[in-house]
Amino acid sequence: MSNWVSLFSGGKDSSWALYRALEEGLDVSRLLTVHPAGDSYMYHTPATELAELAAESVGVDLVEVSPDDFGAADVDDAGAQGDAELEPMEAALREIAAADDLDLAGVTAGAVESEFQTDRIRGMCDRLGIDLFAPLWQRDPVELAEAMFDADFEIRIIQVAAYGLDESWLGRRYDADALDDLLALREEYGVHPLGEGGEFETYVVDGPHMDRRIDLTYDTVWEGDRGHIEVRDATLE
Fold this sequence. Notes:
The protein is of the alpha/beta class. Strands 3-2-1-4-5 form a five-stranded parallel beta sheet, with helices on both faces. The protein has a four-stranded antiparallel beta sheet with strand order 7-6-9-8. Helix 1 links the parallel strand 1 and strand 2 (28-34). The chain folds into two domains: 3-133, HUPs (Rossmann fold), CATH 3.40.50; 148-236, putative n-type atp pyrophosphatase, domain 2 (Alpha-Beta Complex). Helix 3 (78-99) packs parallel to helix 4. The mean pLDDT is 90. It is built from six helices and nine strands. It is globular.
């Protein structure tokens, strides 16, 4: 049977790609989480340390790529850094296919609008001779958000960095009410309804693809015009 690897951060977009893949009957046998060392052009960065709990709840084996695998810290050009950041992911996929003797069919990805990320992931898939399942790609962001709500995803906002988003958003549930507020902020400040420009980051703590909800205890850290939650404890309910 052909196996799929889900590129997974635990955020809403990669979680939705995983969920849609499972709904389509794709045999997702691994989650692959990348832990960047710092700011990243390619990857969701906050709260990736929760991936192990999320994988346990989803019931799919997790493969993790650590910051030690990155060699892009001294690259100044964004394109070159994006290419360099992709290398450990591609190496991990080659190792998964080789070590486990899998028939690797493809990867899932949660890209919505970023051609920077998607072009690189497509190129990687071409080199590996595998397919890309990207169910969010170029879909209407409001329709995507509403689909997540309809599927009973419980999504929490864990980082904000945009005009109009203050400390009260940290830890807030991303739901229909939050979306209405974000659409008002889009009119005023240009905030993307899915946070596609890095305006906010999320984590999925429960959903139909998960057996147990992730319970978070956290502090909020506010830095004047941006902030994030700092997880103190996380458990499966």
